[in-house]
Design goal:
477 residues; Rossmann fold
Length: 477
């Protein structure tokens, strides 16, 4: 019987969550939910020089906004209990790495390396210039040589001995079978001289300890995988399912940059993107639905997602499609929920009665792709800020009749306004665009836009009549 599926997302707190790593979080979350398993959040914060204060909180906040709830992980504002395999910050697991390294050392699989950073860099430069690979000089140090290094104050790193006479074969759900020749894999560092784990060592120790069954990550990590496979073997641990998903490129097919859409998730939130639309879009950067549908709810994504439908080719980020999907999810919202979601993006003091906001939103919702769009769209319901538009030929009668009949309106309800507009058409002997266009242009300055009744309702009696007076007063003669 297969163990329960456990996926993980393991960001480093070195900056904001961006599209590329958010896409990985989404995919890991979906796979865990699809299998009824666990989604584990782990913070890889041992690279202290690169850690950014406040970054961890920002990442957790962004994940919460996306709706990616984790089953185990660091505590955060009402998140579930940490889980049985914590701590979930690598900086709190240093003793665990020391203990794991000691087990390998006891089996003769490691050795201390006293090379300085400069010596390692010089050896790397020689290799890049075509020099032949030579064994690490510290691999065969005598006890006396080690003692001399210790006496000189050198603090050793700990290296893993790589003894191979055949390729390391990695089976990957996305990439297929990938072989790594023995000569490409040299002894590698497990613990730095200050005791901190390297990336390859830390993730393997943690993934084994946390019972991770599926390692789903970017294609850039594929070269790390053979070293990690060697460590799994050394610990006599079962290999997880590996899935290295394609790289996200910008619209210009170069590395995704801030200019081409690699914004922080916080920016998408501030711009009013629907989180369900973003989750929908990010999932499609990795995977395609068997139905061919693109607008999918979370439930549909969870039901349909499989690793086998992830393509191996690099994918192109399309900001236009992201906006479109955000709009599709906004269109599915109830008017009550949409009004509440839009309100923070509008001025604190609305230019019309607050009670009319749901009507205003209803009138323009088909043109809203982000919640922030509502601000500009609602503006289309109001009089123009500039000069009053001049009536076109034959439009003066429509406006004059409308001003008279609207001025006599017993109330300003939608039903009454609909009837008055029909009466204006009958009195002026016009219908369709010949009726609606002059009125809409006079009231808003635009020929196209929301329904006339919505415009009149939002503007209110006093403002709408004043605007018609302004337009009529501007007519010469």
């Amino acid at each position: 019987m297969n163990p329960p599926v456990r996926t993980r997302f393991a960001p480093s707190p070195t900056g904001s969550l961006h599209v590329g790593n958010a896409r990985l979080a989404v995919l890991n979350w979906l796979i865990a939910r699809h299998h009824g398993g666990a989604f584990v959040l782990r913070i890889e914060d041992t690279d202290v020089e690169r850690n950014v204060p406040g970054s961890e909180d920002a990442i957790l906040r962004d994940l919460r906004w996306l709706g990616l709830d984790w089953d185990e992980g660091p505590e955060y504002e009402g998140s579930p209990a940490p889980g049985a395999y914590g701590p979930y910050r690598q900086s709190e697991r240093l003793q665990i790495y020391q203990d794991a390294a000691r087990r390998l050392t006891e089996r003769g699989l490691t050795y201390p390396c006293y090379c300085t950073d400069d010596e390692v860099a010089a050896r790397r430069a020689q290799l890049e210039e075509g020099a032949r690979e030579a064994p690490d000089p510290c691999a065969t140090l005598t006890d006396a040589q080690r003692a001399a290094h210790e006496a000189a104050g050198r603090r050793p790193a700990l290296r893993f001995r790589v003894a191979l006479d055949e390729p390391v074969v990695v089976t990957d759900v996305v990439r297929g079978t990938v072989e790594f020749a023995p000569e490409t894999l040299n002894d590698f560092v497990l613990l730095r001289s200050d005791g901190r784990p390297t990336y390859n060592f830390g993730v393997v120790v943690d993934d084994i300890a946390m019972r991770i069954t599926h390692v789903i990550r970017g294609a850039g990590h594929l070269p790390n995988t053979p070293r990690q496979v060697l460590l799994y073997r050394a610990f006599d641990a079962p290999l997880p399912v590996f899935a290295h998903v394609p790289t996200v490129l910008g619209p210009d097919r170069h590395k995704l940059s801030k200019r081409t859409g690699a914004q922080a998730l916080e920016e998408y939130r501030e711009q009013g993107f629907h989180p369900d639309g973003l989750v929908n879009y990010l999932s499609l950067l990795s995977w395609s639905s068997p139905s061919g549908e693109e607008v999918l709810t979370r439930r549909e994504l969870i039901e349909q997602v499989t690793l086998e439908r992830i393509g191996a080719s690099d994918v192109v980020f399309d900001p236009v499609k992201l906006r479109w999907l955000s709009g599709k999810h906004i269109a599915r919202m109830s008017l009550e929920d949409l009004t509440a979601a839009v309100r923070p993006f509008l001025p604190e003091q609305l230019p019309f009665d607050e009670s009319l906001l749901p009507e205003a939103i209803a009138a323009v919702r088909t043109h809203i792709e982000t919640f922030a769009d509502a601000r500009a769209q609602i503006r289309t319901l109001l009089p123009p800020e500039e000069h009053a538009p001049s009536p076109g030929p034959g439009e003066l009668q429509v406006l004059s009749v409308a001003r008279r009949l609207l001025g006599q309106a017993p109330d300003w309800t939608a039903d009454t306004l609909k009837e008055i507009i029909r009466e204006v058409g009958r009195a002026a002997n016009v219908k369709g665009p010949a009726l609606y266009t002059p009125l809409r242009r006079a009231l808003t300055g635009a020929e196209h836009g929301p329904a006339l009744v919505a415009i009149l309702r939002v503007q209110g009696r006093e403002r709408a009549l004043a605007q018609l007076d302004r337009v009529l007063a501007a007519v010469p003669g």
